[in-house]
Amino acid sequence: MQRSLTLEKLTWIDVEDPDTDTLLALKEKHGFHELDIEDCLSENQRSKVDEYDDYIFTILHIPFYDKRRQRIVGEEVDIFIKTNLLITVHWGGLKPLNNFYEKVESDLKERKKMMGHSSGYLLYEIIDHLFGTLFPLLDTIEANVGTLEQDAFTGGQRDMLKEILNTKKNIIGFRRVMAPLRTVIAQLEHKNKKFLPDSLEVYFDDVLDKVEKIWSTLENLKELIESLQDTNESIISHTTNNVIKTLTIFSVVMLPLNLLAGMYGMNVHLPFSTHPLIFFFLAGGMIFILMVMLIFFRIKRWI
User: What is the DSSP string of 276-295?
Assistant: First the structure.
């Protein structure tokens, strides 16, 4: 699907789920390099910025939560920027970009605000909006980590290992997507001044501040979730040791009692085996041995 908006001299073309013919048509019409078209058609490209004499080509990956796969992945958006022209190419229905385009399309006041300057300013507004939508996702992860932290230190008995590992996986996925974006956004400040004039440096500085804030938060969350994982493993190990300790005490306590019962259960003649009160003697002996062992364990502080 291809759609376009024009205000005065500036045109924004948005291409969603393009085929090869559509991209080749854009290449022929606007003089894009064939390698950039190949990058658009290739999967798993890294975020980057390429500068040419008459345009800039950049690849960005925007993190989002994939409910189907239940993890955070990066959705690619490719951007061509020329004087008075900006083209966005994306797949899979990048919802934040679609929402932004529809808002600009339906609201004339918003269109004049976003497209009333230059292609470089429109690029800033698009990137700023895309990164702005990451904070709710970051807040969700942060709240989840906070809940896990609270449960870990309040003596909860539920198994949190799976939740901790899922959260850790999302944090790692988020960081993997964000890492190259830090360099890309910094590079955009210093690219061809025909499209990104000096007056836009302060705007891209603001975007870079958002990226660094997200990255800093992810670093803190990474350290926290790793600490929580260590804490949870310590709790599991401590609980397991207590269970083993209890079972060991039971086994040790029962050993002499089983030995005594086993000896008198043999079909051989033993002292006092014919005495009419032998049962009470054995029961009393077992209780005495049990009490002595428990007192000994208590003195040793094993229980």
Answer: TTHHHHHHHHHHHHHHHHHH
Three-state DSSP at 243 gives helix
Structure tokens at 234: 């310590």
**H-state helical runs in the chain:** 20-30, 34-41, 95-106, 108-115, 119-132, 134-152, 161-188, 201-264, 278-299
The per-residue pLDDT string of the chain (303 residues; one tens digit each, 9 = 90 and over) reads 777 778 778 888 888 887 888 888 888 888 888 888 888 887 666 788 888 888 888 888 888 887 777 788 888 888 888 888 888 888 876 788 888 878 877 878 877 887 778 788 888 888 888 888 888 888 888 888 888 877 777 755 566 778 888 888 888 888 888 888 888 887 776 665 666 665 677 777 888 888 888 888 888 888 888 888 887 777 777 777 878 877 787 777 777 777 777 766 666 666 766 667 767 777 777 788 778 877 877 777 766
Instruction: Name the pTM for this structure.
Output: 0.73
| 285 contact partners, CB below 8 Å, separation of at least 6 | 260
